[in-house]
Amino acid sequence: MINEQTNLLVVSAHAADFVWRGGGTIAKYAKHGAKVHLVILSYGARGESNDLWKIDDQTLENVKNHRKGEIESATKHLGIDNFEIWDFQDYHMTLNEERMERLVRKIREVQPHHILTHGPRDAFNPDHETVSKFVFDAAVLSTSNGVRIEGTQTAKQARIFGFEPHQSEISDFKPEVIIDITETFEQKEAAMNCFKAQKHLIDYYGAKAKLRGNHARRCSGNNEYQYAEAFSRFFPYVGGEFN
Questions:
Q1: Residue 196: what pLDDT?
Q2: Residues of the chain predicted below pLDDT 50
Q3: Which candidate, 31, 32, 57, 58, places its Cα nearest to that of 45?
Q4: Would you list the domain boundaries of the chain?
Q5: Predicted local distance difference test score (pLDDT) of residue 166
Q6: At what angle do helices 97-110 and 126-141 cross, to 10 degrees?
Q7: Residues with Cβ < 8 Å from 9, sequence gap 6 or more?
Q8: What pLDDT, in 10s, does the model give residues 67-99?
Q9: Predicted local distance difference test score (pLDDT) of residue 89
Q10: Does a cis peptide bond (omega within 30 degrees of 0) precede residue 114?
Q11: Hey, what CATH topology would domain 7-233 get?
Q12: DSSP characters over the chain
């Protein structure tokens, strides 16, 4: 059950990844009272802002400012109040020991029950694969009493879920978790429409949500599911009964 005791940490490689791939789920958690924390590692200025670079005399600073405005608008639509942009360079992203410690510190600060980030395979975006491993490693380190970071308290192992990659079949993605987002799809749609720098993806991810909604109905028998998002799991489901 999602409630005010639930902590969700979302780690997005680039400006809009969290919206395309998990916006409806994130909005659902926020709507039901969960504490949602969002870390955006980069603006995606080099590799995911192609339309902006078609403007004459464009600069990196202007691209980042534009993407920052998009992020701020999108987070309002999704109900996210707590977000950070770490402004790492993208394409290709380098994640060193200092940055690892920063994320471990963040995980220990949030004490998340769930972490939502990129899955382990993404055929055409090495940044996403790099961030997937980065988040997994940081999550494991955050649980170790021997990893001493001043001012932090060891975290419990969070459940980690991976976004569906853009090129699902080519990336050999198979849905392991499907989340109904019917009640928040309009919020996701509004957030997607904030990202004019990647406007070609708006229709694509709207159609993807309908497709996964079809799968949600077929797998569950619940005909109220109209829109959904799919994710991979980093760990098996553990419980006292089938669920």
A1: 84
A2: none
A3: 58
A4: 7-233
A5: 94
A6: 60
A7: 37, 38, 39, 106, 107, 110, 112, 114, 115, 116, 158
A8: 999 999 999 999 999 999 999 999 999 999 999
A9: 97
A10: no
A11: Rossmann fold (3.40.50)
A12: ---TT-EEEEEESSTTHHHHHHHHHHHHHHHTT-EEEEEE----TTTS-TTGGGSTT--HHHHHHHHHHHHHHHHHHHT--EEEE--PPPSS----HHHHHHHHHHHHHH--SEEEEE-S--TT-HHHHHHHHHHHHHHHHTT-TTS--TT--PPPPPEEEEEPPSSTTTTT---SEEEE-GGGHHHHHHHHTT-GGGTHHHHHHHHHHHHHHHHHHHHH--TT---EEEEEESS----SS--
Using CA atoms in the order 99, 49, 29, 185, what is the torsion angle rounded to 10 degrees? -170
Return the pLDDT at 243: 78
What are the tokens at 215? Answer: 């799968």
Residue 86 tokens, joined:
């770490």
Residues, the chain, total?
A: 243
